[in-house]
Write a structure and sequence with these properties.
It is built from ten helices and 15 strands. With 342 residues, the chain is an alpha/beta fold. The chain has two domains: 137 residues, Rossmann fold; 186 residues, Dihydrodipicolinate Reductase, domain 2. The structure holds nicotinamide-adenine-dinucleotide.
């Protein structure tokens, strides 16, 4: 059994408590939160779990193997650092921390103390996202031209990080997972209307190696809950609607044919249409064996028990933060394209 302490019992924390409590390979020894009302709600929902307002109770308890952090992003570094220094494995919610420097420091620390550091990039544990990865890596879609990602909702509005750090963190993690690469440059514009200096909507474009463009629209100031992704390849195209749980994926057998075999000039609308293949749209079955968050929690337990590196470990979390840091820089500099070292 892996004994877990969950820190942060706000909106997201109880989902983690629930998964680690019901896993069969772990149990929740402590739930820590600064807010006693939150702890009272936890005690009611999860009878028998020890609650505390003091993080050190969990960090100093030798019986605790791992600390799971679901507090606001600005607190991630301090809590994860203290947990690693106390010899605990750490699963920290996305994004890893709120700055590039602190994310780098955390990765170095985890390596030094030889503990698992995993980031809760839950999207890479989503069965549909894994199926998209399969279509990309097996060449089903052909060469990838671009990916467009829309993640909007009305709230929750954060004050410690902007919409890019809060929402686009998901998209960057999954795009990098699909393309097996990190962005080589980033440019972004955004607007901060609700709280000065904290962007409510961010429009960012990331260049990936191989001339792949990834365009992101992240906003918590939008009437529509959307998790829409379009992947355009030179053989096929695909849409992924994460709000549509029954049929999240659609594959479009659509393609622009190689124009070199066509006449140089398309002298009519009809001949132009000849160069476009407009085939079937199929809805593949996505076996949702278990929820993404359950997969994520079970993967963390695998890594702790077997000592294997996580799919969304410190390195991957740091790469996401590096892209987010570049988005912030570009926002400050009016959309300038910021180059990233590979
Ligand atoms: N993976 C996902 O899909 C997903 C979804 C929602 C939130 N999150 C992430 O989870 C984290 C928490 O988000 P949330 O929406 O639950 O926030 P929240 O504000 O609802 O809850 C945060 C909780 O942490 C507590 N807290 C704050 N500072 C603390 C400290 N120093 N020590 C102990 N407790 C402290 C607060 O009292 C609160 O109960 C964020 O990093 C967010 O990005 C991830």
């Amino acid at each position: 059994m892996v004994h877990v302490a969950v820190v942060g019992a706000g909106h997201w924390g109880p989902n983690l408590i629930n998964n680690f409590q019901s896993s069969g390979r772990s149990s929740v020894s402590y739930v820590v939160d600064r807010d006693s009302d939150r702890l009272a709600a936890v005690a009611q929902r999860f009878p028998g779990v020890v609650t505390s307002r003091n993080f050190d109770d969990a960090a100093n308890d030798a019986a605790v193997d791992a600390v799971v952090i679901a507090t606001p992003t600005r607190t991630h570094f301090d809590l994860a650092k203290r947990a690693l220094e106390a010899g605990k494995h750490v699963l920290v919610e996305k994004p890893l921390t709120d700055s590039l420097e602190s994310s780098e420091a955390l990765c170095e620390l985890a390596q030094r103390v030889e503990r698992i550091l995993m980031v809760g990039h839950v999207f890479v544990y989503n069965p549909a996202a894994r199926q998209v990865k399969h279509y990309i890596t097996t060449g089903e879609l052909g060469r990838i031209y671009y990916i467009s990602m829309v993640r909007t909702n009305l709230g929750p509005i954060r004050v410690d990080v902007d919409a890019a750090w809060d929402l686009a963190a998901h998209d960057i993690s999954v795009a990098s997972y699909w393309l097996d690469a990190t962005p080589s440059s980033v440019s972004a514009i955004g607007g901060a209307w609700v709280n000065p200096g904290v962007a409510d909507a961010v429009f960012a474009t990331l260049r990936y190696p191989g001339d792949v463009l990834v365009n992101l629209h992240a906003s918590w100031l939008n009437p529509r809950k959307a998790r829409d992704i379009t992947v355009v390849g030179d053989k096929k195209m695909l849409t992924f609607d994460d709000v549509n749980l029954a049929e999240p994926l659609r594959i479009y057998d659509k393609q622009v044919m190689d124009q070199r075999s066509q006449p140089v000039y398309t002298d009519s609308f009809a001949s132009f249409r000849m160069s476009v293949r407009d085939g079937d749209i199929t809805v593949p079955r996505v076996p949702m064996m278990s929820e993404p968050l359950r997969n994520e929690c079970e993967h963390f337990l695998d890594c702790v028990i077997q000592g294997t590196p996580p799919l969304s470990g410190g390195k991957e979390g740091l790469a996401v933060v590096r892209a987010l840091d570049a988005i912030s820089q570009s926002l400050r500099e009016g959309g300038r394209e910021i180059r990233l070292e590979s």
